[in-house]
Amino acid sequence: MQGVETFLESKSIRVTAMRILIYNFLSDKDVAVTLSDIENAFDKADRTTLYRTIKTFEDKEIVHQIDDGTGVTKYALCEPNCHCDLETDLHLHFHCTECGATICLTDHKIPKIKVPKGFVAEHVNLVVKGTCDKCNCD
């Protein structure tokens, strides 16, 4: 656990047991999770504490939000050294229409998108929808 504590401290986050637990929960997932998924995993925890932890992690660039078109925000850990920068850190997300999983495809970067003069891009989200490798094995 020392590694997680050191990492959180390096991001200027006060280390608490719940923050360590949530970080470990997220790091064990290979798919993006909803706030409800986190609540279900920690059913004895205060909902506000869970939400604030996720918002802190997002503000400190530990997690990123994914809008996969389902109407429910999902969260996934950022890659090491990620700054959620439009120029370098954006990647594809894949939403499986069979199982509902949303997966970060971090090896597939979103190319720089040039917007017309006078426009300012602040967020880019590219979601590919289809059938994931697990569901496609039938």
From TrEMBL:
Pfam families: FUR. Binds 1 zinc ion per subunit. It comes from the Bacteria. Its cofactor is Zn(2+). One of its GO terms (molecular function) is DNA-binding transcription factor activity. Zn(2+) binds at residues 96, 99, 132, 135. Belongs to the Fur family. This is Fur family ferric uptake transcriptional regulator. It comes from Formosa algae.
